[in-house]
Amino acid sequence: MSPVSGSSADSIASTSFSILVRLPMPLPILSVPRKTGGIPEPSDRTGLARDLLQFARSNRCDSTLLTSSNPDETLPPELLAVLNESFVAQLAETFRNASHDGSYQTAFTSGETLLALYRLIYPENYPQIGLHLLELAKTYWNGLLVQNLDTRRECLGYLTEAKAILSVLGPEGDEGGPLVEISTLESLLLNQ
């Protein structure tokens, strides 16, 4: 994808980013593509995911980072490609497939990386973060059951955080929704 200049770059970035995060635009982060020539296509996705996870673990990684007055100074230029829709889609697919196929180490890494990305682009307590935390908790639970991995602590941590976020919304009205899943998994963990 070749960079676009001027107001069309802002328009494309706003449209793409609003689809990705489902938030009103513009965000200050959208000034970064204009200054840098656009959101780059990720070349080394594995390295980019590793760098994002490392960045998230060593920095305050939440949406205030991208909505600060100078996001181009807070998000390193080498991480700009994490905002590319193809990177987000590929990371989500890797997590989903690895979780379902029982490739738990891959699922843990890709899931934690996706969580770091969600925390960058979504506001704190955004439902997408809570739903992803629930999926991470279920993945860690499956790793505990299927492969006898020592993942109880992680499962409980993600589950607790998911509950805190999703309880704000309350029941969705659909039988077996996220709060029911959380309650079920909590019971299973307590009886483990």
Describe the protein in words:
InterPro entries: TPR-like_helical_dom_sf. The protein is mainly alpha-helical. The protein has a single domain (6-190), classed as Serine Threonine Protein Phosphatase 5, Tetratricopeptide repeat, CATH 1.25.40. The chain is built from ten helices and no strands. It has helices at 6-21, 31-36, 45-58, 63-66, 71-74, 85-101, 104-121, 127-147, 152-166, 178-190. It is globular and about 50 Å long.
Compose a concise summary of this entry.
InterPro entries: TPR-like_helical_dom_sf (IPR011990). The chain has 192 residues and is mostly helical. It has 10 helices and no strands.
For this entry, give a set of tags.
TPR-like_helical_dom_sf, disordered N terminus, 192 residues, 10 helices, Serine Threonine Protein Phosphatase 5, Tetratricopeptide repeat, 67% helix, mainly alpha, single chain
